[in-house]
């Protein structure tokens, strides 16, 4: 000890005073901030990067800068999960059904709910084989309003997702429904269901994923934040995982940069303050995880007061 203090030109009394000195206020604050960062990051299933972690901390009344959060996350190796894999083809546009015009024309920002829905289908790998997911998004809030899973790509998969969306949202007439040119959306049964509910159909141009970019973005987020980090043994296991991600995390908790770092549910409720007591009870129960997905449509049986 004497040699070390001599080499460093530090007195022994000064060294021992440093050893027993309590942490400074700034050090304690950094430690508290790191703990809060780890908590937010863990609750996001390790998906949030520094911008969303910072927004969440601000919402919790913790004063901190974006650069400080980013620096602490780098120093403590707190990172968002990123991973890419190959793409399976789920769009079969080789059919003779009529193709509607692209009315949406990439107008992904909407000012009112239930004016434009976007739909698409993707795949989830399991040890039993592919599980296909059909989903429908309200472009106003980016909320997934309908979804369904199956071990096939027949029209019934897309129909089930649409029926769930209609049951949950009870939209008015003239809603614009946008999708790719897949046979599931162009077939007579699907178009008839759209017409029965007064919806207009819009479809992307041939082989142009940018015309349905909102859904492509959602599926990319879903796989980056969830699917690529799991090795599902069964389709049932994958479906339960999708339910928890979509209904508990994505719609209710995940901060969306396009919504000013709000969740889809928070964004809708902020724009519609007079939420009914019935809906609040239903949302609260589902947010606590009191419900689980039934055999066919998850949580389709909720009150039709949603969006009325």
Polypeptide structure, described:
With 308 residues, the protein is of the alpha/beta class. It folds into 2 domains: 2-75, no CATH class; 116-287, Ribonuclease H-like superfamily/Ribonuclease H (Nucleotidyltransferase, domain 5, 2-Layer Sandwich), CATH 3.30.420.10. Helices cover 42% and strands 12% of the residues. The chain contains 12 helices and 5 strands. A 5-stranded mixed sheet has the order 3-2-1-4-5, with helices on both faces. Helix 3 crosses helix 4 and helix 4 (50-59) packs across helix 5. The radius of gyration is 24 Å and the shape is elongated. Mean pLDDT is 84; it is low at 274-282 and 294-308.
Condensed summary:
With 308 residues, this protein is α/β, with parallel strands linked by helices.
Key phrases:
about 300 residues, alpha/beta, Nucleotidyltransferase, domain 5, 2 domains, 5-stranded mixed beta sheet, 12 helices, about 10% strand
Question: Which residues form runs of ≥5 with pLDDT under 50?
Answer: 274-282, 294-308
Please give the number of β-strands. Answer: 5
Shape: elongated
| Portion in beta strands | 5-15%
The biggest sheet, with number of strands, parallel, antiparallel or mixed sense and barrel status, is: 5 strands, mixed
The assigned CATH architecture of the largest domain is 2-Layer Sandwich
Number of domains: 2
Oligomer: single chain
Mean pLDDT: 84
Number of helices: 12
Question: For the record, what is the CATH homologous superfamily label of the largest domain?
Answer: Ribonuclease H-like superfamily/Ribonuclease H
* Overall helicity: 40-55%
Note the run of SSEs as H and E.
HHHHHEEEHEHHEHHHH
Order of strands across the biggest sheet? Answer: 3-2-1-4-5
Classified by CATH, the class of the largest domain is Alpha Beta
Please state the CA-atom Rg, rounded to the nearest Å.
24 Å
